[in-house]
Amino acid sequence: MTSLENATKQRASAKTGYRRLTLYMATNSISNAMYIVVFGEYVLIEVANSDVIWAAQLAAINNSVIYASRVFVGNPLMGNVSDLLGRRVGLMIGQGSFLVSMALFVYFPSIFTLLGGSCLAGCLTAEPVTQSYLADLTTVFTLTDYIKTAKVQPQKAKEDMTEAELIAYRLLFAKKSSKLIALLLATYTFFLAVGAMAGSIMSAKLDEEADGDAESFNSTNSTIDVEKNNCDAAKETAGSTDHMKSTFDSAIFLSIICFLVTTTLGNTEAEKQLVEQNKSTRFSPIEAWFGSYNFVKSHMLNIKHVRVILFLLFYMKSVEFGAISIFFYYGKFQFDWTASEYAIFIMVIVLANAFANTVMVNLFNRLFKNQWNAALFCMIFLTLEFVFYFLATTTSAFTMAALFNSFNFLFSICKAKVFANYDSNEFGKVAGGQEAILNCGSIFGPIIFAALFTFGVDQTGLPDCVLGTGRHHYWAAFPWAFAAIAVFLCGTILPYVKRLDTFLTEGSNSKQ
């Protein structure tokens, strides 16, 4: 077989792999969305006894458990597992653990199954495996681009490239990786919107029944002298969660389908060679864990350019997940959101994000020669998004503010820039290390935002169980003011990151 025929075969195989990965992301996101739409209300009723502040704090604790498990166990372990045993095995383990954790909490709701299931899913997360597999596919696409563009030499090993060829390869890899990551994120977010819509329809019965109860309860909010009576009334009118059963069952069914899809993933040429090389290596979870952390310390954090990008990702992930963790409970307190209203908000914000990771990222990559200029533009609009969340006095205005998420393509740019510094046999460790840093932000963000939300609600002088009083409380919106300032400050370091990135055009690489 000629080199051209071999390259064509590998490219065709990579295209098939990417389509299957897209299918995996689509089914996974629909399942997640249907679960998320009713999860907040389920926790509020089944675990928190209608105390919205305790529910928000519990959500923050749950997020911290998930991401602490990922940081200290899941990311270093599963990234290495995918290098040693293959991407397919890693994806099957990750998706299977998530399915078990979801079923445990849905059918046996308690604080123990909530946190225990989250710990299991975090320790066996599939995220670094997914990113490693995508990086494998990106390598194939980049090295075989000559079939269409004649820009890259056919299947030339990177160690055999000249310095100029290596620089050209890494720049091309970064742009192509950014595009593929963005498309995959867009797929995920688009189908999150589909899942949110489906969950909204399935939970519509709850909203119709709850309207009368909410009205009768909130009519007492004008006289909040008897706090205990109000909170007791909230518990009595909370109702059952039977109407959520079909939504949860559908989410679990789709998660099973997603697990079956993982059995068809993996098996790129680079992965086969990597697994073959590691056949003689005895797999040890402890050695894999230490190996990955040593890699992060010696091959990622010691490179100034990569270190600053990882800090940027950590910082923005803290803000993103902090906001996500309180969206429902803020809407419940400020506007007395129903499940359908929350689903519509989720649908808008994820569709905006899908638009960001398809149309906007490609548009700005063309408008700006340097991707960091596009990132700076992104940060300006994300700051405005949080400003409008703070100012919004109605559900409609709050939902409209989510349209600014159309500029949220920062993560795809940053992740691609990190991967461009490494070879394909390191992608598992790189993905694991990158996700470990991101998940540190996912630990601290929800805790900070839950504390800010608790503080803000306390300043209103209202009981924790009061929902939608008909008056906007700016103290309760305090987390959004904090987020706007935080994002703006983060944007100020982008010019510094841009200056550091010149090493890619001066011949430096991760090995120097």
What does this structure look like?
By secondary structure, the chain is mainly alpha-helical. It contains 19 helices and no strands.
Give me a quick take on this structure.
The chain has 19 helices and no strands.
Total strand segments: 0
Give the DSSP E fraction (strand runs of 2 or more residues).
under 5%
Average pLDDT over all residues: 77
Query: What is the distance, rounded to the nearest whole angstrom, between the alpha carbons of the first and last residues?
Result: 36 Å
* Cα gyration radius (Å): 24 Å
- Uncertain regions: pLDDT < 50 for 5+ in a row? 150-155, 206-229, 503-512
Helix content: over 70%
Question: Largest sheet at a glance?
Answer: none
Structural class: mainly alpha
Q: What form results from the Cα inertia axes?
A: globular
Number of helices: 19
Order of helices and strands: HHHHHHHHHHHHHHHHHHH
